[in-house]
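User: Predict structure, ligand magnesium ion.
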Amino acid sequence: MKITGIDWGEVSIPLRTPFKTALRTVASVEDIIVRVYTDTGDIGFGEAPPTGRITGDTTGAIVGAIRDHLAPALVSRRVDDFNDLMALVQGCVVHNSSAKAALDIALWDLFGKLRGVPVYQLLGGSRNHLVTDLTISVNSPEEMARDAQIAVDRGFDCLKVKVGVNPALDVERLAAVRAAVPSGITLRIDANQAWKPKEAVRILNGMQERGLNIEFVEQPVAADDLEGMKYVTERSCVPVLADESVFSPMDAMKILQTGAADLINIKLMKCGGIYNGLKIATLAEMYGVECMIGCMLEGRVAVNAAAHLACARSVITRIDLDGPMLCASDPVHGGSVFNEKDITLPDDQTGLGITGVDGVKRVGHVGEVEG
Ligand code: MG
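Assistant: Predicted complex:
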């Protein structure tokens, strides 16, 4: 199977309601879709959402990295030489983890098609069902309590509650959410770097003293403040999950070696795709640290790929793949079936199983492409 051409384009997916965190407010998912064409007629699909506030990858940066580096390096290469291609994707340009993830995903899709099995099976996975949480945006305590109630009515039994905007309100926010949902509902929180270390310990211990029963806190302090995160991990009774602090496998290694966090959040857009996601999962497994699989605000091409990785590694025990459930429509055909909290990977689809994406406005290509 030889790569004959690659194209990339933009697609816009409206959200059900605006998504609000300590870092940003967003009304729609603006995505880059990549298609890798081959001489067998198979097409590999990949995706990269621009998340400048998190990864630094803007639309222009993603398109530039694909156009100038990734696509020219890959066209006319054989998918059979898979390990070489994986190294090429990571090595042909520095940074640009989202653009790398898009090509990595498309290549795994093709490699699975070449071998005739779903990617999660190719990676040794046997489970094909996941249960995801749902994110509650940061708002007033009353609004958040109402949103949590709606999520529980939709069948979600685990909620990821965003906090960190005006931290003085955070304990009240959680108290309002906890009071609004049945006691069996799991609550995890994400501060998106908003707190100072001492403030984080005070807020978290305050939440536990009020019996709010928090499963873990995600990224309480600034991404580069590993000492601060270790301070929180050692003093808070709530487990700490590293998100923005861990992009690459080397970042994960630092956290694991220093014990700066209790858990690690793997996202394909941070680490550059499944190839590096596997490395982080393996490192975490070696240190006895469990992982969460997460996503950006992104469509189902990339989230589907993350679901395949999660099904392949039992060290990934927490699932935060609610991107498609936050969208008002789904332009993606094939792949995992998302039904509220339930994600099911069909076992009769090869590769990642994506067959098409509606409404993609092509903005560039290299080599021979269709249409
Ligand atoms: Mg997070």
